[in-house]
Amino acid sequence: MFKPSIVAAAIALSISLSGCNNDNGSGSSTNKDDQQSTLAVLKYVDPLIGTDGLGNVNPSPVTPEGMIQPSPDNWNPNNWGGKGSPSDYHHYLNQLSGFSTTHISGAGKGDLNDFAFLPYTGFHSTAVTMDKQTEVSKVGYYAVDLIETKVKAELTATDRVAFQRYSFPDGADRKVKIDLQHELLEQYGNHSRSIYYKKVADNAIAGARTSNEWGQWQTVYFYAEFSEPFSGHMAYVDGKQTAATEVGLADYQGYGDKRERISDVVTHLNFGAGEQPITVKIAISGTGIDGAIANLNADTNGYDFDDVVTDNQQQWADVLNKFTIKGGTQADKTMFYTSLYRTYVAPFVYQDVDGKYRGMDGKVHQAEAGFTNYSVYSMWDTFRAAHPLKTIIDKDRAIEYAHDLMNKFKTGGVLPKWELHSDYTGEMVGYPAVSVIADVMVKYPEAFTQQDFELALQAADVSANFDLTITQDWVPYKDAWNGDKRFTVMTRHGEYAEQHGYVPADAKKQPQDGGIAQDKYDELVNESVSYGLENAYYDWCIAQIAKLAGDDAQYQRYMARSQAYKPYFDHNVSEYGKYGATGFMRPKNHDGSWVNNYPSCAIDGQGDPIAPLPANCDINDTTSFDIFWPYRAEHRGQDFTEGNTWQWSWFAPHDIAGLKQTMGGEAGFLQNLDALFTANDKADTSQGDMTGYIGQFIMGNEPDHHVPYLYNWTAEPWKTQEYVDQAMKEFFHPTKEGLIGNEDVGQMSAWYIMGALGFYQVNPGEPVYTIGRPLFDEVKFDVDSGQFTITAENNSPDNLYVESVTINGKPLGNNYTFDHSKIRAGGELHFVMTNKKPSVN
């Protein structure tokens, strides 16, 4: 039977104490009662929210911004050959393949998941059944009983060290399997390129794994020590047992390394029968095994698993107690604090205790005093709300991100789009890092030097333009590490926008096919509308950096490029009136002709799809495309990214006045917004990224996240309050299916937090916010040297309209806006709520 676990009692006590706490505990404390009050906020965090459905999150007991994330990975024999699911973990699945040490929060991809540890007894070393009735997932602690082997597994973590504790049945051999290959989502291309393994001592092992998927040469090193020496050691290479205690390449160089390498290593350790649990401490590093050893040796917890849980929980309490809340329901508070928790999972610290880190060039660097290297920047998602939120509630960290991104340019030569463990993934659209940098710099210019502004401008300018002479230094022909990223990290979209005023849809086609492609690197000049619209915004961000740097020529250049969104809009009331709209953004060829995307035989006179399709009408036959149908959803590689024109027609946050004019003025802008939120929500649901429909507004993916707030730029601002309220109520729930789309490393949660607070930044890079509707009666959160307060008078679920609102006692500006500088210690954003739609602002 299981030995009793001290931590279970400790957690039960913590939960009991938290149940009688009010909502106003905050700050660190020096006595036991204050500490218990501080920890009470943890009762509002449920790491299992979003682990089913679409959230793709995992229940890792990670520390705030911790670089190691131990978590269970599922084995799903009915899905992708047993290689798991996009999140690696779904609560409804009960088969466990192991507890791996690195994860991405909610991105729906198979990267990381390095080094899976699985305790077992007898010969049952394959997938095992999790007893879901025993599963516990709390801040800083995860546990589950394994049915066939009767092992209890518990997880916790420090910043760089994962702790796993296994309690075995009496009399059974205590065994652990370590799967160094451990690949999930193999069908997406996730493979182990090289594995190294070494038995270091009778209680210690080490190794490394280089894998690819998003990251082409993603390498992690580990070092693990066990609380007891193992008496049995078996290693298998490619399924064959070996007597060797060291296998593979310890110094694998990545692309161009032609030495024979190993890609599948499994080790079995036997600790024999015994009464004590086996605890393993696992440290990781991006620099080498020596770095992992140093990270583990710096940990002073010994094998005291329970103390690690306590320390982990205290760290989270310190973060979450930045906010205190009055009002709202238990569910509201749980959703809010869990969302806040998720925004602190990443970006996370990715350097060793001695300051060494792997740069974007694959080389080991030493951090200068005051510098921190971070990793997992999901910037196409997070520039919209997650990074702006950090500029409000964690100024110092936001400034560090800007310096870190500029350093990534210095070590790699280009700003990353979606950085993963110091690897260029080239994932998603454009160059969103310039938004993150610009937003921090315009809000806190005093935190940066003239050299910083000039470096930021140089990094932005290089990253926004395709230049083979730059990339030659880091593609595989010259560099063994990052792989050929010219296709994705740097593309010619910006060049074409500057030449033509927009990105032509046929830029990727060869001249003989009617296009204007110059060479093979134009093959991925696709998603022309999405790239064109987003790049126009990013170019506006570059202009703001240029202004700070005092470079008027670059300011004028990028401001001109920021207008490249306009040519995409087809203003045609007679054609699009059947959809209630004045027009849509649509793809355009270099000669100015519009691109069609659908056959008219599949659409009726009202613009709705015909079902069943008429005979001889093939919606996939491009030769029959003779109309532009706004509902046509696309994933990637065509003209739109993960959506259709209903969503993408609104992406010009930097120039709302210009977008209004393009759509036909104030009336056309409002008409199109209304058409979006009342459009047919079932016309084309073929794309999995399009979820959370209100009409054709999509809450479950990022391009639309700012759109409900655009009603504040119309004569009917109360519709912002209605649609934000509807989205929060319908699409965010404190349940395992409670997220309507991928969490995307904090973005979905950050949107919810901003909605609950009652304001949002439509245009990151412009330090201005506009309002929605607050969820709570009062919220206080930490800012420099004090707290900022948000109050809502007459607040209730029925009183969702804003009757009046002031910032620090003064009315807001046009479009219900206020400046970032108004969020200061002692300040207050005060709402008066009503159940009546207010008059025009």
List keywords for this structure.
841 residues; alpha+beta; Glutathione S-transferase Yfyf (Class Pi), Chain A, domain 2; GH92 mannosidase fold; 3 domains; eleven-stranded antiparallel β-sheet; six-stranded mixed β-sheet; 20 helices; 21% strand
Radius of gyration: 27 Å
Mind telling me the CATH class of the largest domain? Alpha Beta
Number of E strands: 35
Strand order of the largest sheet: 1-2-4-5-6-7-16-11-10-9-14
Largest sheet: 11 strands, antiparallel
User: Which architecture of the largest domain per CATH?
Assistant: 2-Layer Sandwich
Give the rounded overall mean pLDDT: 91
CATH T-level topology of the largest domain: GH92 mannosidase fold
Gross morphology: globular
Supply the helix-strand structural class.
alpha+beta
SS strand fraction: 15-25%
Q: Count the helices. How many?
A: 20
- Oligomer kind: single chain
Write out the CATH superfamily name of the largest domain: GH92 mannosidase domain
Distance between the termini: 68 Å
Structurally, the number of domains stands at 3
Task: Catalogue the unreliable spans.
Answer: 1-29
Signal peptide: 1-19
Domain Glycosyl hydrolase family: 292-834
Pfam family, one: Glyco_hydro_92N
Organism: Photobacterium phosphoreum
What does this structure look like?
The protein has 841 residues and is an alpha+beta fold. The protein has 3 domains: 55-319, Distorted Sandwich (Beta-galactosidase, Chain A, domain 5), CATH 2.70.98; 379-522, alpha-1,2-mannosidase (Glutathione S-transferase Yfyf (Class Pi), Chain A, domain 2), CATH 1.20.1050; 565-834, 2-Layer Sandwich (GH92 mannosidase fold), CATH 3.30.2080. It is built from 20 helices and 35 strands. Strand 26 and strand 27 form a beta hairpin. Helix 7 (386-393) crosses helix 8, helix 9 runs parallel beside helix 13 (528-549) and helix 10 runs antiparallel to helix 13 (528-549). The chain is globular. The termini are far apart. Mean pLDDT is 91; it is low at 1-29.
